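Input set for joint prediction.
Command: fold jointly, output C-alpha coordinates.
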Amino acid sequence: MSDHDYKKLYEDTSEELEQCQVDAKKAAKLLMRRDIALTEANNLLRQTNKAKSEFISLAAHQLRSPVATINWYISNLVDGKEKKNFSEKQESKLLQIQSSSKHMAELIDTFLLMSRLELGTSGENRKDIDFDVLLNDIKMDMNYMISQKNITYETAIDVNTPVCADRNMLKSIVENLISNAVKYTPKEGSVTSSFSVLVSGKDFGGRSLQKESLCVKVIDTGLGIPKEQQGRIFERLFRADNVLSKDIQGTGLGLYIVKLMILQFGGDIWFSSVENEGTSFFVSIPVHMISAC
Amino acid sequence: MKGPYLKNKNTIILPMKKILIIEDDKAMASILQESLQEEGFGATFAQDGEEGLERIKAEHPDLVLLDVMMPKMDGKEMLKELRAHPETKNIPVIMLTNVGDDIDTISDIVALDTPDYLVKANTSMDMIVERIKQRLQDQP
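C-alpha coordinates >
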Protein backbone atom coordinates (compact mmCIF):
# COMPACT_ATOMS: atom_id res chain seq x y z
CA MET A 1 0.00 0.00 0.00
CA SER A 2 1.29 3.44 -0.91
CA ASP A 3 1.49 6.39 1.46
CA HIS A 4 -1.47 7.88 -0.30
CA ASP A 5 -3.52 4.78 0.32
CA TYR A 6 -2.58 4.81 4.02
CA LYS A 7 -3.53 8.45 4.29
CA LYS A 8 -6.85 7.73 2.60
CA LEU A 9 -7.49 4.76 4.92
CA TYR A 10 -6.57 6.88 7.92
CA GLU A 11 -8.95 9.64 6.85
CA ASP A 12 -11.78 7.18 6.12
CA THR A 13 -11.31 5.45 9.45
CA SER A 14 -11.22 8.77 11.28
CA GLU A 15 -14.45 9.81 9.57
CA GLU A 16 -16.06 6.52 10.51
CA LEU A 17 -14.87 6.87 14.07
CA GLU A 18 -16.22 10.40 14.26
CA GLN A 19 -19.51 9.15 12.85
CA CYS A 20 -19.49 6.35 15.43
CA GLN A 21 -18.88 8.88 18.20
CA VAL A 22 -21.78 11.00 16.95
CA ASP A 23 -24.01 7.89 16.78
CA ALA A 24 -22.89 6.78 20.26
CA LYS A 25 -23.71 10.23 21.67
CA LYS A 26 -27.12 10.10 19.99
CA ALA A 27 -27.72 6.59 21.39
CA ALA A 28 -26.64 7.71 24.85
CA LYS A 29 -29.03 10.67 24.67
CA LEU A 30 -31.80 8.35 23.49
CA LEU A 31 -31.07 5.93 26.32
CA MET A 32 -31.09 8.74 28.83
CA ARG A 33 -34.43 9.95 27.50
CA ARG A 34 -35.77 6.40 27.66
CA ASP A 35 -34.46 6.08 31.21
CA ILE A 36 -36.20 9.29 32.23
CA ALA A 37 -39.41 8.19 30.47
CA LEU A 38 -39.27 4.79 32.20
CA THR A 39 -38.70 6.38 35.61
CA GLU A 40 -41.63 8.70 34.97
CA ALA A 41 -43.81 5.77 33.85
CA ASN A 42 -42.72 3.81 36.91
CA ASN A 43 -43.59 6.71 39.22
CA LEU A 44 -46.94 7.06 37.52
CA LEU A 45 -47.61 3.33 37.93
CA ARG A 46 -46.61 3.55 41.58
CA GLN A 47 -48.96 6.48 42.09
CA THR A 48 -51.77 4.66 40.27
CA ASN A 49 -51.17 1.55 42.36
CA LYS A 50 -51.21 3.66 45.53
CA ALA A 51 -54.43 5.35 44.40
CA LYS A 52 -55.93 1.90 43.74
CA SER A 53 -54.97 0.66 47.22
CA GLU A 54 -56.29 3.87 48.80
CA PHE A 55 -59.55 3.46 46.90
CA ILE A 56 -59.91 -0.16 48.04
CA SER A 57 -59.16 0.90 51.60
CA LEU A 58 -61.73 3.70 51.49
CA ALA A 59 -64.37 1.52 49.80
CA ALA A 60 -63.82 -1.27 52.33
CA HIS A 61 -64.07 1.14 55.27
CA GLN A 62 -67.29 2.59 53.92
CA LEU A 63 -68.79 -0.84 53.24
CA ARG A 64 -68.15 -2.15 56.74
CA SER A 65 -70.86 -0.12 58.41
CA PRO A 66 -73.85 -1.06 56.18
CA VAL A 67 -72.74 -4.69 56.15
CA ALA A 68 -72.61 -4.71 59.96
CA THR A 69 -76.11 -3.20 60.02
CA ILE A 70 -77.41 -5.87 57.63
CA ASN A 71 -75.85 -8.60 59.79
CA TRP A 72 -77.45 -7.22 62.94
CA TYR A 73 -80.88 -7.05 61.30
CA ILE A 74 -80.58 -10.59 59.97
CA SER A 75 -79.44 -11.96 63.33
CA ASN A 76 -82.35 -10.16 64.97
CA LEU A 77 -84.71 -11.93 62.54
CA VAL A 78 -83.02 -15.31 62.88
CA ASP A 79 -82.53 -15.30 66.66
CA GLY A 80 -85.08 -12.75 67.88
CA LYS A 81 -88.74 -12.82 68.75
CA GLU A 82 -89.86 -12.91 65.12
CA LYS A 83 -88.23 -16.27 64.50
CA LYS A 84 -91.45 -18.14 65.25
CA ASN A 85 -93.28 -16.28 62.46
CA PHE A 86 -91.12 -17.81 59.73
CA SER A 87 -91.76 -21.03 57.87
CA GLU A 88 -88.96 -23.56 57.70
CA LYS A 89 -88.26 -22.52 54.11
CA GLN A 90 -88.12 -18.83 54.97
CA GLU A 91 -85.82 -19.52 57.91
CA SER A 92 -83.48 -21.54 55.74
CA LYS A 93 -83.33 -18.69 53.21
CA LEU A 94 -82.59 -16.21 56.00
CA LEU A 95 -79.78 -18.42 57.25
CA GLN A 96 -78.34 -18.47 53.73
CA ILE A 97 -78.50 -14.66 53.57
CA GLN A 98 -76.83 -14.51 56.97
CA SER A 99 -74.04 -16.81 55.91
CA SER A 100 -73.39 -14.87 52.67
CA SER A 101 -73.48 -11.58 54.48
CA LYS A 102 -70.92 -12.79 57.02
CA HIS A 103 -68.80 -13.94 54.12
CA MET A 104 -69.04 -10.45 52.61
CA ALA A 105 -67.91 -8.93 55.93
CA GLU A 106 -64.92 -11.29 55.94
CA LEU A 107 -64.02 -10.29 52.39
CA ILE A 108 -64.21 -6.60 53.26
CA ASP A 109 -61.87 -7.15 56.21
CA THR A 110 -59.47 -9.00 53.95
CA PHE A 111 -59.48 -6.20 51.38
CA LEU A 112 -58.74 -3.72 54.15
CA LEU A 113 -55.83 -5.76 55.38
CA MET A 114 -54.45 -6.21 51.88
CA SER A 115 -54.66 -2.52 51.06
CA ARG A 116 -52.99 -1.71 54.37
CA LEU A 117 -50.15 -4.08 53.50
CA GLU A 118 -49.83 -2.68 49.98
CA LEU A 119 -49.86 0.91 51.18
CA GLY A 120 -47.21 0.05 53.72
CA THR A 121 -49.24 1.67 56.47
CA SER A 122 -49.28 -1.57 58.40
CA GLY A 123 -45.97 -1.02 60.12
CA GLU A 124 -46.57 2.54 61.22
CA ASN A 125 -48.29 1.97 64.51
CA ARG A 126 -45.63 0.26 66.56
CA LYS A 127 -46.62 -0.21 70.17
CA ASP A 128 -45.54 -2.21 73.19
CA ILE A 129 -47.50 -5.43 73.02
CA ASP A 130 -49.34 -6.75 76.04
CA PHE A 131 -49.99 -10.35 75.04
CA ASP A 132 -52.61 -10.89 77.78
CA VAL A 133 -54.70 -8.00 76.45
CA LEU A 134 -54.13 -9.00 72.81
CA LEU A 135 -55.18 -12.60 73.40
CA ASN A 136 -58.12 -11.52 75.51
CA ASP A 137 -59.33 -9.26 72.66
CA ILE A 138 -59.07 -12.13 70.22
CA LYS A 139 -60.90 -14.50 72.55
CA MET A 140 -63.69 -11.95 73.04
CA ASP A 141 -64.23 -11.92 69.26
CA MET A 142 -64.11 -15.70 69.10
CA ASN A 143 -66.10 -16.55 72.25
CA TYR A 144 -69.36 -17.07 70.46
CA MET A 145 -68.05 -19.65 67.99
CA ILE A 146 -65.99 -21.37 70.70
CA SER A 147 -69.00 -21.81 73.00
CA GLN A 148 -71.33 -22.78 70.15
CA LYS A 149 -68.98 -25.64 69.19
CA ASN A 150 -68.04 -26.40 72.79
CA ILE A 151 -64.38 -26.19 71.89
CA THR A 152 -61.72 -26.42 74.59
CA TYR A 153 -59.65 -23.28 74.13
CA GLU A 154 -56.38 -22.73 75.92
CA THR A 155 -53.63 -20.14 75.65
CA ALA A 156 -50.20 -20.13 77.26
CA ILE A 157 -48.14 -16.95 77.30
CA ASP A 158 -44.51 -16.98 78.34
CA VAL A 159 -43.06 -13.79 76.88
CA ASN A 160 -40.72 -11.97 79.24
CA THR A 161 -38.96 -9.91 76.58
CA PRO A 162 -40.59 -6.57 75.70
CA VAL A 163 -42.14 -6.79 72.24
CA CYS A 164 -42.81 -3.71 70.13
CA ALA A 165 -44.71 -4.17 66.89
CA ASP A 166 -47.66 -2.99 64.82
CA ARG A 167 -50.44 -4.22 67.08
CA ASN A 168 -53.05 -4.48 64.32
CA MET A 169 -50.72 -6.53 62.17
CA LEU A 170 -49.67 -8.87 64.98
CA LYS A 171 -53.30 -9.23 66.04
CA SER A 172 -54.34 -10.06 62.47
CA ILE A 173 -51.72 -12.81 62.24
CA VAL A 174 -52.70 -14.46 65.52
CA GLU A 175 -56.42 -13.88 64.97
CA ASN A 176 -56.32 -15.46 61.52
CA LEU A 177 -54.54 -18.56 62.78
CA ILE A 178 -56.77 -18.99 65.84
CA SER A 179 -60.01 -18.28 63.95
CA ASN A 180 -59.00 -20.79 61.25
CA ALA A 181 -58.32 -23.35 63.97
CA VAL A 182 -61.71 -22.74 65.59
CA LYS A 183 -63.50 -22.67 62.22
CA TYR A 184 -62.04 -25.95 60.98
CA THR A 185 -62.27 -27.85 64.27
CA PRO A 186 -65.43 -29.90 64.75
CA LYS A 187 -67.61 -29.73 67.88
CA GLU A 188 -66.02 -30.82 71.18
CA GLY A 189 -62.51 -30.40 69.69
CA SER A 190 -59.68 -28.35 71.09
CA VAL A 191 -57.61 -25.34 70.06
CA THR A 192 -54.47 -24.40 71.97
CA SER A 193 -52.04 -21.61 71.32
CA SER A 194 -48.75 -20.68 72.92
CA PHE A 195 -46.48 -17.65 72.81
CA SER A 196 -42.87 -17.75 73.92
CA VAL A 197 -39.44 -16.29 73.21
CA LEU A 198 -36.83 -18.94 72.42
CA VAL A 199 -33.08 -18.50 71.99
CA SER A 200 -31.29 -19.41 68.76
CA GLY A 201 -30.47 -23.08 68.35
CA LYS A 202 -33.62 -24.15 70.23
CA ASP A 203 -35.93 -26.59 68.50
CA PHE A 204 -39.32 -25.21 67.54
CA GLY A 205 -41.90 -26.95 65.39
CA GLY A 206 -39.31 -29.45 64.14
CA ARG A 207 -36.79 -26.75 63.17
CA SER A 208 -33.73 -25.35 64.83
CA LEU A 209 -34.14 -21.59 65.32
CA GLN A 210 -31.50 -19.49 63.55
CA LYS A 211 -32.09 -16.45 65.76
CA GLU A 212 -33.70 -15.61 69.09
CA SER A 213 -37.37 -15.49 68.13
CA LEU A 214 -40.90 -14.87 69.25
CA CYS A 215 -42.52 -18.26 68.68
CA VAL A 216 -46.23 -18.71 68.18
CA LYS A 217 -47.85 -22.12 68.01
CA VAL A 218 -51.52 -22.80 67.22
CA ILE A 219 -52.65 -26.41 67.45
CA ASP A 220 -56.10 -27.74 66.63
CA THR A 221 -57.85 -31.09 66.47
CA GLY A 222 -59.57 -30.06 63.24
CA LEU A 223 -60.11 -31.33 59.71
CA GLY A 224 -56.42 -31.15 58.78
CA ILE A 225 -55.03 -30.41 55.33
CA PRO A 226 -54.92 -33.21 52.70
CA LYS A 227 -51.29 -34.26 52.20
CA GLU A 228 -51.28 -33.70 48.43
CA GLN A 229 -52.50 -30.10 48.91
CA GLN A 230 -50.21 -29.07 51.73
CA GLY A 231 -47.78 -27.35 49.36
CA ARG A 232 -50.46 -24.92 48.20
CA ILE A 233 -52.08 -23.57 51.33
CA PHE A 234 -50.26 -20.21 51.31
CA GLU A 235 -51.30 -19.57 47.69
CA ARG A 236 -53.70 -16.76 46.95
CA LEU A 237 -57.36 -17.94 46.83
CA PHE A 238 -56.45 -21.57 47.50
CA ARG A 239 -58.85 -23.62 49.60
CA ALA A 240 -58.40 -27.30 50.37
CA ASP A 241 -60.88 -29.86 49.00
CA ASN A 242 -61.91 -31.24 52.40
CA VAL A 243 -62.92 -27.75 53.53
CA LEU A 244 -64.80 -26.95 50.33
CA SER A 245 -66.74 -30.22 50.52
CA LYS A 246 -67.88 -29.35 54.06
CA ASP A 247 -69.20 -26.00 52.82
CA ILE A 248 -67.22 -24.03 55.41
CA GLN A 249 -66.92 -20.47 54.19
CA GLY A 250 -63.64 -18.67 53.76
CA THR A 251 -61.97 -16.24 51.41
CA GLY A 252 -58.88 -18.27 50.50
CA LEU A 253 -56.87 -15.15 51.32
CA GLY A 254 -56.30 -15.53 55.07
CA LEU A 255 -53.12 -17.61 55.11
CA TYR A 256 -51.76 -15.81 52.03
CA ILE A 257 -51.99 -12.50 53.88
CA VAL A 258 -50.74 -14.00 57.14
CA LYS A 259 -47.61 -15.14 55.32
CA LEU A 260 -47.15 -11.69 53.72
CA MET A 261 -47.38 -10.06 57.13
CA ILE A 262 -44.97 -12.51 58.74
CA LEU A 263 -42.47 -11.88 55.93
CA GLN A 264 -42.74 -8.15 56.68
CA PHE A 265 -41.68 -9.00 60.23
CA GLY A 266 -38.73 -10.93 58.80
CA GLY A 267 -40.24 -14.14 60.19
CA ASP A 268 -41.43 -17.47 58.89
CA ILE A 269 -44.52 -19.69 59.06
CA TRP A 270 -44.82 -23.45 58.60
CA PHE A 271 -47.09 -26.26 59.71
CA SER A 272 -47.64 -29.96 60.16
CA SER A 273 -51.00 -31.53 59.49
CA VAL A 274 -52.73 -34.89 59.34
CA GLU A 275 -56.11 -35.04 57.66
CA ASN A 276 -58.95 -35.67 60.12
CA GLU A 277 -56.58 -35.37 63.08
CA GLY A 278 -55.55 -31.75 63.13
CA THR A 279 -53.05 -29.07 62.22
CA SER A 280 -50.26 -27.27 64.05
CA PHE A 281 -49.06 -23.91 62.78
CA PHE A 282 -45.71 -22.48 63.81
CA VAL A 283 -44.63 -18.87 63.46
CA SER A 284 -41.21 -17.48 64.32
CA ILE A 285 -40.35 -13.79 64.28
CA PRO A 286 -36.76 -12.72 65.06
CA VAL A 287 -36.74 -10.73 68.30
CA HIS A 288 -34.45 -8.03 66.84
CA MET A 289 -37.28 -7.16 64.38
CA ILE A 290 -39.73 -6.49 67.23
CA SER A 291 -37.53 -5.29 70.05
CA ALA A 292 -38.59 -2.56 72.45
CA CYS A 293 -40.15 0.67 71.15
CA MET B 1 -86.96 1.67 91.14
CA LYS B 2 -84.18 1.03 93.61
CA GLY B 3 -82.60 -2.42 94.08
CA PRO B 4 -84.23 -5.80 93.59
CA TYR B 5 -87.60 -6.39 95.24
CA LEU B 6 -89.70 -9.50 95.83
CA LYS B 7 -92.69 -9.89 93.55
CA ASN B 8 -93.76 -13.11 95.21
CA LYS B 9 -92.04 -15.81 97.21
CA ASN B 10 -89.92 -17.16 94.36
CA THR B 11 -89.42 -14.39 91.87
CA ILE B 12 -86.94 -11.58 92.26
CA ILE B 13 -87.54 -8.76 89.83
CA LEU B 14 -84.42 -6.77 89.10
CA PRO B 15 -84.76 -3.14 88.13
CA MET B 16 -84.60 -2.65 84.37
CA LYS B 17 -81.14 -1.47 83.37
CA LYS B 18 -81.06 1.62 81.16
CA ILE B 19 -78.77 1.66 78.15
CA LEU B 20 -78.20 4.80 76.13
CA ILE B 21 -77.12 4.20 72.53
CA ILE B 22 -75.28 7.14 70.95
CA GLU B 23 -75.10 6.46 67.23
CA ASP B 24 -75.67 8.66 64.19
CA ASP B 25 -76.62 5.80 61.84
CA LYS B 26 -80.37 5.50 62.41
CA ALA B 27 -80.68 1.98 61.01
CA MET B 28 -77.91 0.80 63.30
CA ALA B 29 -79.26 2.61 66.34
CA SER B 30 -82.72 1.26 65.73
CA ILE B 31 -81.70 -2.41 65.52
CA LEU B 32 -79.48 -2.01 68.58
CA GLN B 33 -82.39 -0.50 70.48
CA GLU B 34 -84.82 -3.23 69.42
CA SER B 35 -82.42 -6.06 70.21
CA LEU B 36 -81.56 -4.64 73.63
CA GLN B 37 -85.22 -4.11 74.45
CA GLU B 38 -85.89 -7.74 73.52
CA GLU B 39 -83.17 -8.68 76.01
CA GLY B 40 -85.03 -6.81 78.72
CA PHE B 41 -83.04 -3.58 78.81
CA GLY B 42 -84.53 -0.11 78.72
CA ALA B 43 -82.82 1.24 75.60
CA THR B 44 -82.96 4.76 74.18
CA PHE B 45 -80.81 6.51 71.62
CA ALA B 46 -79.19 9.84 70.80
CA GLN B 47 -77.82 10.84 67.41
CA ASP B 48 -74.61 12.66 68.30
CA GLY B 49 -72.31 13.43 71.18
CA GLU B 50 -74.00 16.70 72.14
CA GLU B 51 -77.44 15.13 72.36
CA GLY B 52 -75.85 12.14 74.09
CA LEU B 53 -74.39 14.30 76.89
CA GLU B 54 -77.74 16.00 77.47
CA ARG B 55 -79.51 12.65 77.63
CA ILE B 56 -76.95 11.22 80.03
CA LYS B 57 -77.44 14.14 82.42
CA ALA B 58 -81.22 13.79 82.20
CA GLU B 59 -81.62 10.01 82.14
CA HIS B 60 -78.65 8.70 84.17
CA PRO B 61 -78.21 5.52 82.10
CA ASP B 62 -76.55 2.43 83.64
CA LEU B 63 -74.37 2.02 80.56
CA VAL B 64 -73.59 3.90 77.35
CA LEU B 65 -72.95 2.38 73.94
CA LEU B 66 -70.92 5.02 72.15
CA ASP B 67 -70.15 5.29 68.43
CA VAL B 68 -66.76 6.80 67.61
CA MET B 69 -67.38 8.62 64.31
CA MET B 70 -70.26 11.07 64.68
CA PRO B 71 -71.14 14.59 63.56
CA LYS B 72 -71.09 17.59 65.94
CA MET B 73 -69.27 15.90 68.83
CA ASP B 74 -67.59 12.56 68.12
CA GLY B 75 -67.32 9.65 70.52
CA LYS B 76 -63.77 10.36 71.67
CA GLU B 77 -64.57 13.97 72.50
CA MET B 78 -67.76 12.94 74.26
CA LEU B 79 -65.95 10.37 76.36
CA LYS B 80 -63.45 13.02 77.48
CA GLU B 81 -66.35 15.26 78.56
CA LEU B 82 -68.00 12.37 80.35
CA ARG B 83 -64.85 11.46 82.25
CA ALA B 84 -64.20 15.09 83.21
CA HIS B 85 -67.32 15.40 85.37
CA PRO B 86 -67.70 13.61 88.72
CA GLU B 87 -71.39 12.80 88.21
CA THR B 88 -70.80 11.08 84.86
CA LYS B 89 -67.24 9.81 85.13
CA ASN B 90 -68.14 6.37 86.48
CA ILE B 91 -70.78 5.46 83.89
CA PRO B 92 -69.54 2.36 82.02
CA VAL B 93 -69.00 3.07 78.34
CA ILE B 94 -68.56 0.57 75.52
CA MET B 95 -67.19 2.22 72.40
CA LEU B 96 -68.49 1.03 69.03
CA THR B 97 -66.08 1.53 66.17
CA ASN B 98 -66.16 0.80 62.50
CA VAL B 99 -62.56 1.16 61.72
CA GLY B 100 -60.01 -1.29 63.04
CA ASP B 101 -57.39 1.45 62.84
CA ASP B 102 -59.29 3.47 65.42
CA ILE B 103 -58.50 0.92 68.08
CA ASP B 104 -55.15 2.45 68.94
CA THR B 105 -56.62 5.91 69.30
CA ILE B 106 -59.45 4.62 71.42
CA SER B 107 -57.09 2.64 73.61
CA ASP B 108 -55.09 5.81 74.20
CA ILE B 109 -58.15 7.65 75.36
CA VAL B 110 -59.72 4.97 77.48
CA ALA B 111 -56.39 3.94 78.93
CA LEU B 112 -57.34 6.05 81.94
CA ASP B 113 -60.48 4.01 82.41
CA THR B 114 -61.22 0.36 81.55
CA PRO B 115 -60.59 0.19 77.80
CA ASP B 116 -63.66 -1.30 76.22
CA TYR B 117 -64.57 -1.27 72.59
CA LEU B 118 -66.22 -3.43 69.97
CA VAL B 119 -65.55 -3.31 66.24
CA LYS B 120 -69.04 -3.26 64.74
CA ALA B 121 -68.32 -5.34 61.66
CA ASN B 122 -66.72 -8.11 63.74
CA THR B 123 -69.36 -8.13 66.45
CA SER B 124 -72.63 -10.01 66.54
CA MET B 125 -75.62 -8.77 68.50
CA ASP B 126 -75.13 -11.66 70.95
CA MET B 127 -71.58 -10.48 71.60
CA ILE B 128 -72.80 -6.95 72.30
CA VAL B 129 -75.44 -8.19 74.73
CA GLU B 130 -72.91 -10.46 76.42
CA ARG B 131 -70.45 -7.59 76.83
CA ILE B 132 -73.14 -5.26 78.21
CA LYS B 133 -74.20 -7.85 80.79
CA GLN B 134 -70.60 -8.43 81.76
CA ARG B 135 -69.91 -4.72 82.23
CA LEU B 136 -73.09 -4.25 84.27
CA GLN B 137 -72.15 -7.19 86.49
CA ASP B 138 -68.69 -5.74 87.06
CA GLN B 139 -70.20 -2.49 88.31
CA PRO B 140 -70.17 -2.08 92.11
